[in-house]
Write a structure and sequence with these properties.
Elements (H helix, E strand, L loop, with lengths): L6 E10 L2 E3 L30 H9 L6 E2 L12 E2 L20 H16 L14 E5 L5 H13 L7 H5 L5 H10 L5 E4 L5 H14 L5 E8 L3 H9 L24 E9 H6 L6 E11 L2 H16 L6 E6 L4 H15 L3 H6 L1 E3 H5 L5 H17 L2 E7 L12 E9 L2
Parallel strand pairs: 5-6, 5-7, 10-11, 10-12
Antiparallel strand pairs: 1-2, 1-8, 1-9, 3-4, 7-8, 9-13, 12-13
Helix pairs in contact: 2-5, 6-13, 9-10
Length: 412
């Protein structure tokens, strides 16, 4: 990674089972009421914005954002619960009506629009003559569209396979939709490297700014709750079965499948200040590493990110993990504790297991976690460490260890 400039966060958008928000995770889901009730430790506060502390409290209270699956009917023996985004309506975010858009693209479009609006870059006239770039990450791409098109090829007359879903079925189709709808004409890149794709998109955005390829760039990621992904995870035995208490206590590392989208606006500080943007936070360091397992990879990445950021362990006031499984979250907390030279109890005290609350949001997890870290750093006045590791169980038989990405986000 090249030496970077002073890179700041000026906007964020998030769409998840917890709801929708311009700066971080909102509380539109009915279960969010538990975050703000007197019965939930750490609850209370603004019902329009959920802090990572409150999300962690929701986990402690046993309240992940999950419910009965509504998108389709699970097959016999498959789990019946997931962390879907209920009531999502793209028309609340984008005024023009689309004849067809894949759900993965729709989620990303809403999150990116929220982030640009938050950064005051939605209006092209406010961009100071600079072209805003885009780095988009996804683990699975537009599987619903792919299933619609290839299902017709497989089961019916190929002449009647619908052409419109086919044009929306590529991994880079979403990036094209965002570029067209939001006027993103600058540097472009699509990243698809498993569940850490969103975190990798942020690293790629940092590189683009450091190399002078952009002055402002939207780093977005999304994956939707699709039948194809659900059945893949179920066939691998990775989904939490009906009757299991929760993902946090499941020793086999099974989880709830979710969905989501997130977007961060990164800018060169000089450009942001010249246009009068409000700085939400600083992305001070980021690093990717491979290790023997997720814990080893996370520790190596965390040490590298802290070194790049020049942040001392005592300056870190929050750790945001993305793993949706109990063993994975504990490995993240342990690796961060080792990198920060903290005792296990001290690391757990500042650890926010975002994936355990939102379910497996796949590529979106890294960007959602970074948005939470940015908010936490602003409120606490310190720095937050983000960890996002691959899950090698999704690619059985692959050799070469496990990869992870770590980021350090600090107050403005």
């Amino acid at each position: 990674m090249p030496e970077r400039r002073d890179i700041v966060v000026t906007g964020a958008g998030a769409i998840s089972a917890a709801g929708e928000a311009a700066e971080v995770l909102g509380c539109a889901h009915p279960a969010a009421a538990r975050l703000h009730s007197g019965d939930t430790p750490g609850g209370g506060g603004d019902a329009g914005a959920t802090t990572i502390e409150a999300l962690a409290a929701a986990l402690a209270a046993g309240a992940p954002f999950s419910g009965e699956i509504t998108a389709f009917e699970p097959a016999e023996g498959e789990p019946t619960r997931a962390a879907e985004i209920l009531g999502f309506d793209l028309s609340r975010h984008v005024p023009s009506i689309k004849s067809y858009i894949d759900r993965t693209s729709a989620l990303a479009l809403a999150a990116a629009r929220l982030a640009l609006e938050d950064a005051r870059l939605l209006d092209e006239g406010s961009r100071g003559g600079a072209e805003v770039g885009l780095v988009y990450g996804t683990q699975w791409g537009c599987l619903d569209s792919m299933e619609i098109f290839y299902g017709k090829l497989r089961d019916g007359d190929p002449r009647f396979a619908p052409p419109l879903p086919f044009s929306h079925s590529y991994a880079n189709s979403t990036a094209s939709v965002l570029a067209i709808e939001l006027g993103l004409r600058g540097h472009h890149l699509v990243v698809s490297t498993g569940r850490a794709s969103g975190a990798w998109a942020i690293l790629a955005g940092v590189d683009a700014l450091a190399l002078g390829r952009a002055r402002a760039i939207a780093c977005a990621a999304s994956d939707s709750f699709s039948r194809a992904a659900f059945r893949l995870y179920a066939s691998l035995g990775l989904l939490l079965p009906d009757g299991a208490a929760d993902a946090a206590g499941d020793k086999q590392g099974r989880f709830l499948l979710g969905e989501g989208a997130g977007a961060l606006i990164l800018e060169d500080r000089a450009f942001a200040e010249a246009r009068g943007a409000e700085v939400r936070g600083r992305l001070r360091g980021a690093e990717a590493a491979r290790g023997a397992d997720a814990r080893d990879a996370c520790e190596l990445a965390a040490r590298g990110a802290l070194a790049r950021a020049g942040v001392a362990p005592g300056e870190v006031t929050a750790i945001v993990g993305t793993s949706p499984s109990g063993p994975g979250a504990r490995a993240e907390a342990a690796s961060a504790g080792a990198a920060l030279e903290l005792r296990a109890e001290a690391a757990r005290d500042i650890f926010a297991p975002l994936g355990l609350v939102l379910g497996e949001t796949m590529a979106a997890s890294g960007v959602l976690a970074a948005a939470c870290a940015c908010m936490s750093a602003r409120r606490a006045g310190g720095s937050a460490l983000v960890l996002c590791a691959e899950d090698g169980r999704e690619t059985p038989g692959r050799e070469g260890g496990t990869g992870a990405v770590a980021m350090v986000v600090s107050h403005p």
